[in-house]
């Protein structure tokens, strides 16, 4: 990946309201993410990874720092999490509850579309790591299983 191309992506992101940008080319993946004051650090680390090749091509600065535990269920996309089907209904699932594979645990609303998040396997929920109405990022842990 050419340094000039990377610089153009950094400049484009700096002049927009994008919070995340990912680009893949020739086996390299460049991921830029803006997270408050840490945005410039992430961009610089991603640039160094892409140009120097100090890490594997698909590694990113943020993925290494915030990798979820194997027993966590993570958000498949960015959006607003809802732990109930509606305000008057009971929770889809709560801490201490045993769940079955395929059972709906929460819903993530993204662009007015409601996406069900289902249990990947039979397990017991040890902790609910988010609150209803909270914005979540793709890859953010939602539930921790025992």
Automatic annotation (TrEMBL):
Pathway(s): Lipid metabolism; fatty acid biosynthesis
InterPro entries linked to this entry: AcCoA_biotinCC, Biotin_BS, Biotin_Carboxyl_Carrier/Decarb, Biotin_lipoyl, Single_hybrid_motif
Pfam families: Biotin_lipoyl
Alphabetized SUPFAM superfamilies for the sequence: Single hybrid motif
Lipoyl-binding domain residues: 85-144
Domain of life of the organism encoding this protein: Bacteria
Entry keyword set: Biotin, Fatty acid biosynthesis, Fatty acid metabolism, Lipid biosynthesis, Lipid metabolism
Function recorded in the entry: This protein is a component of the acetyl coenzyme A carboxylase complex; first, biotin carboxylase catalyzes the carboxylation of the carrier protein and then the transcarboxylase transfers the carboxyl group to form malonyl-CoA.
Cross-referenced PANTHER family: OXALOACETATE DECARBOXYLASE ALPHA CHAIN
Name of the protein: Biotin carboxyl carrier protein of acetyl-CoA carboxylase
Natural source organism: Variovorax ginsengisoli
């Amino acid at each position: 990946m050419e340094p000039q191309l990377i610089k153009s992506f950094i400049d484009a992101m700096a002049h927009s309201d994008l919070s995340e940008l990912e680009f893949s080319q020739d086996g390299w993946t460049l991921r830029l993410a803006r997270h408050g004051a840490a945005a410039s650090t992430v961009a610089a680390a991603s640039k160094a990874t892409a140009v120097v090749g100090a890490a594997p091509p698909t590694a990113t600065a943020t993925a290494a720092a915030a990798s979820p535990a194997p027993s966590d269920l993570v958000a498949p996309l960015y959006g607003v999490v809802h732990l109930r089907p509606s305000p008057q209904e009971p929770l889809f699932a709560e801490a201490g509850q045993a769940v079955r594979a395929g059972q709906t645990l929460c819903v993530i609303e993204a662009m007015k579309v409601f996406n069900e998040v289902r249990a990947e396997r039979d397990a017991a929920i040890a902790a609910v790591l988010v609150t209803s109405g909270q914005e979540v990022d793709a890859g953010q842990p939602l539930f921790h299983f025992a």
